[in-house]
């Protein structure tokens, strides 16, 4: 008999949720660091370079070297900056990225064993750790809202540093925020109409029949729209207007150094992982608990979307702010509205 994501599970306790939150913080932060290594290697391969090679085997210890550099680098605050907002802005970006992950299925359910090699594990032994830290019935809305709130980090960072490049980056943040948040919401609305729920669990269970049940076959237009909006959400090429080096130095991050700059960095990669997870669950079937390798499949799907973001950076040029707004308001938004209307007619018929 097929089992769904929520059937026959032990009771979720506060301790299990705390453990899940710690796992998300630790693992996603580590993956963000490892993602930098993967990105540099992928870009090097596509541009016929070697990438990191000298620090450790195949340059693997470059991640540790970069981490040590970030933690030990001097934290400089500009003299004329609004110091309070300048210091808080990076925390907003990092915090919202991890809070968004609290309502996304991250890693499988598991129970911590009570004994390991004959030794009893105190306090946490036998605790059930859920796949979702906070399983709320409006999970998609919550995650998209938190990712949108994360854009206030670059917005405030650019406005607070008394630097013309920061101000320009902040203005571009507002442009991007107003444009692509609308497309993101409209693109996901049609799949929500089909499933009839905002819960990631319901989306996963609605596609439990195998590859033929994936929503991408019913909503290819919504999938493409969400993918394009996802690049803008995560500030990735070709929509990295906020910190395009050739135009605005580093934009909102121009005056940042040390770990405060690293918090922007971690937030961006955490959002990339979040977008990859959402796309995998909403459009590509998520993980089917009726299959033994269901979790392996979703990891492969997430890895594909992460690689796609790196591939696009290597292959596509940047766009101008006016091109971004034209694409959003005159192309993507009308397509999204038409897709919603057509979906509604099909459902009613």
Verbal overview:
The chain has 349 residues and is mainly α. The chain has one domain (14-348). 62% of the residues lie in helices and 2% in strands. The protein is built from 12 helices and 4 strands. It has helices at 14-46, 62-72, 83-101, 139-149, 152-160, 164-195, 200-206, 220-233, 245-248, 258-283, 294-315, 321-348; strands at residues 110-111, 115-116, 119-120, 128-129. It has a two-stranded antiparallel sheet with strand order 1-4. A hairpin with a 2-residue loop joins strand 2 (115-116) and strand 3. Helix 2 crosses helix 10 (258-283), helix 6 (164-195) runs parallel beside helix 12 and helix 10 packs across helix 11. It starts with 13 loop residues before the first helix and ends with a helix. 41% of the residues are buried. Residues 1-7 have low confidence and may be disordered.
């Amino acid at each position: 008999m097929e089992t769904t994501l929520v059937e026959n599970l032990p009771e979720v306790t506060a301790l299990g949720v705390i453990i899940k939150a710690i796992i998300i913080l630790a693992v996603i932060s580590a993956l963000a660091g490892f993602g930098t290594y993967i990105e540099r290697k992928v870009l090097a391969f596509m541009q016929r370079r070697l990438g990191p090679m000298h620090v450790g085997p195949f340059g693997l210890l470059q991640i540790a070297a970069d981490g040590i550099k970030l933690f030990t680098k001097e934290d400089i605050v500009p003299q004329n900056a609004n110091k309070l907002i300048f210091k808080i802005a990076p925390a907003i970006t990092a915090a919202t990225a991890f809070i968004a992950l609290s309502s996304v299925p991250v890693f499988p359910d598991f129970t911590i064993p009570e004994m390991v090699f004959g030794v009893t594990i105190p306090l946490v032994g036998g605790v059930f750790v859920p796949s979702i830290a906070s399983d709320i019935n409006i999970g998609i809305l919550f995650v998209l809202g938190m990712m949108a709130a994360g854009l206030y980090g670059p917005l405030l960072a650019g406005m607070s540093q008394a630097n013309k490049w920061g101000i320009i980056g902040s203005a571009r943040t507002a442009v991007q925020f107003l444009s692509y948040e609308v497309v993101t919401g409209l693109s996901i609305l049609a799949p929500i109409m089909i499933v009839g729920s905002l819960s990631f669990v319901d989306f996963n269970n609605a596609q439990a029949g195998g590859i033929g049940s994936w929503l991408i076959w019913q909503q290819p237009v919504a999938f493409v729209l969400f993918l394009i909006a996802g690049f803008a959400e995560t500030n990735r090429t070709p929509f990295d207007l906020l910190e395009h080096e050739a135009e605005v130095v580093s934009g909102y991050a121009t005056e940042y150094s040390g770990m405060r700059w690293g918090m922007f960095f971690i937030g961006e990669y955490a959002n990339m992982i979040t977008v990859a997870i959402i796309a995998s669950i909403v459009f590509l079937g998520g993980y089917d608990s009726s299959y033994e390798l269901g979790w392996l499949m979703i990891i492969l799907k997430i890895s594909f979307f992460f690689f796609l973001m790196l591939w696009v950076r290597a292959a596509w040029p940047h766009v101008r702010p006016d091109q971004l707004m034209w694409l959003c308001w005159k192309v993507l938004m009308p397509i999204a509205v038409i897709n919603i209307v057509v979906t509604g007619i099909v459902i009613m018929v």
